[in-house]
Amino acid sequence: MTPVMNKMRRISLSVFLIIFFNQIVSAQYDPRALSILDDMSNKYQNMGAYLANFTYSLQNEQEGISESFDGTLLVDGDKFRLIMAGQEIYCNGTTVWTYIEEINEVNIDNYYPEEMEMSPSNIYAAYKNGYKYQFVEEVNTNGNATQIVDLVPEDSGSPFFKIRLSIGKNDLNLNSWEIFDKNGNRYNYLVNSVQNQPVDNQKEFEFDVKRYPGVEVIDLR
Questions:
Q1: Strand partners, 148
Q2: Is it the case that residue 4 has pLDDT exceeding 70?
Q3: Do residues 61 and 184 lie in contact, with contact meaning Cβ atoms separated by under 8 Å?
Q4: CB-neighbour burial class of residue 37 (10 A; exposed 0-12, middle 13-18, buried 19+)
Q5: 3-class secondary structure, 109
Q6: What is the DSSP string of 123-155?
Q7: DSSP secondary structure, 34-79, as one string
Q8: Buried b vs exposed e over 75-101: b needs ≥16 C-beta within 10 Å?
Q9: What is the model's pLDDT at position 82?
Q10: Strands 105-110 and 50-60
Q11: For residue 48, how many other CB atoms are within 10 A of its CB?
Q12: Of 94, 66, 95, 96, whose CA–CA distance to 82 is shortest?
């Protein structure tokens, strides 16, 4: 397996640097940030099922890493389907399937969202448990006002030390989120479009072995 695929597997679920030390220690439970986060979260929770197209990038200046991939994410409550860079992840709310195209292999495991720092189905509500939040600034992005909010894990043992959310002031869209880890990696998810997507067949959130001839199935449950 290539180094790229190894990195992708480690950061696939979850589902997003370098900041000054005083920014970390001063992070608070900022009421202005909380209001913005609540409004954004309520919008997505009220959307029902939705489909998002995004661009994922990984940057590490020290290691000379710069990678970018396009992907799609279908979400319906606690169910999701993530397709990105030769990897497909299906979750029906209880089971998660991770398929790696390069080696034609799928891993099956139980889904424990409470054990995941970031998941495609909880990114819009992750701030509600285990994070401090702070309003950073309001910027103009292509003529649109964008509000920047930082999340800082309460657990000092977390593998990352900040998540930066960019939220549209008027439409409350989560335009991007950026995850900064302690190894100098910066993971960015830029949302290109998001729209309601009614799901008629819940099987869309389950891996269909019949569609992948010769796939090796590794059941970790």
A1: 137, 166
A2: no
A3: yes
A4: buried
A5: strand
A6: TTTGGGSSEEEEEEEEEEETTEEEEEEEEEES-
A7: HHHHHHHHHHHHTT-SEEEEEEEEEEETTTTEEEEEEEEEEEETTE
A8: bbeebbbbbbbebbbbbbeebbbbbbe
A9: 93
A10: unpaired
A11: 13
A12: 96
Q: How many CB atoms lie within 10 A of CB 148?
A: 19
Question: Would you state the pLDDT for residue 48?
Answer: 85
Tokens coding 114: 């409470």
pLDDT, one tens digit per residue, over 101-120 is 999 999 999 988 766 555 66
Q: What does the chain come to in residues?
A: 221
Q: How many CB atoms neighbour CB 128 within 10 A?
A: 13
What is the per-residue burial (b if ≥16 Cβ within 10 Å, else e) of 157-174? eeebbbbbbbbbbeeebb
Backbone angles phi, psi at 126, to 5 degrees: -60, -30
Q: Rg of the chain's alpha carbons, rounded to an integer?
A: 18
Determine the pLDDT at residue 120. Answer: 60
- CA 87, CA 78: separation in Å to the nearest integer? 20
DSSP label of 159: S
Burial bucket for residue 151 (CB in 10 Å: 0-12, 13-18, 19+):
buried
Residues 39 and 13: their CA atoms lie apart, in Å, by 24
Distance CA 84, CA 53 (A): 10
The token pair that represents 8 in the structure block: 């992708």
